[in-house]
Automatic annotation (TrEMBL):
Annotated organism of origin: Pontibacter populi
Cited InterPro entries: Beta-barrel_OMP, OMP/PagP_B-barrel
A Pfam family the protein falls into: OMP_b-brl
Keywords per UniProt: Signal
Domain Outer membrane protein beta-barrel intervals: 5-224
Residues in the signal sequence: 1-19
Name this polypeptide is given: Outer membrane beta-barrel protein
Record has Zinc as a keyword: no
Amino acid sequence: MKKLFTIAILGLLSTGAFAQTSQGTKVVSGDLSLSISTYDQKVYNPVIDRTSFYRTNGTAFRFAPGIGYFIKDNLRVGAYIGYGLNNYKYITRDQSTSSSKAKEREHIYQIGASIVKYYMLTDKFAFTTTGGIGFENRESKANNNPESSFKKNSETLALHAGLTPGLVFFPSEKVSAGMGFGFLGYRSEKNTNYYETSTHENSTSSIGLDLRSSTWVVNFSYHFNR
């Protein structure tokens, strides 16, 4: 009797995670990321024989709720919307120790679609690869010191498509927690800066691997079949 009971318990534990990733399962999820960064740069101008020092302090927050559906065992498709808020502080100092400061706040609005493949490592852990495509619109405002008239508004439209690896843990039959880290793919941006007396536009595109902390995302999901 004890042996049958033990087998039954092990059977329930081993099927919980696979039930979460079986065909027909629906998912409600949320991605959360938070990063803090500091960037220092030193520039020497030989014409005036002066060195300037630049420091950028940044904090970035993003939350993206989404929905998903397993079209096959261990294969999920989904869609998401997201909102992010970035804050930057710029400090410029030269050899005379005089300095200037500026602040910038950026709002980010996102929408996208994804497909996730689960590779079960154990009954409770899985390695995932997420392929996705998304669009985002960023709007920012920057102000210098109060005594300065410098102001800048900018708008950025971006497209990204690529792959993100991750790990998922299934603590219960209906809940999963995971992390995605890094981004390998394509990104294209068109940026427009609006100054008080002029407008500047530029476009950039890149293909490669991005391992910045802003690409690390924590994910929580709820799985159900009805």
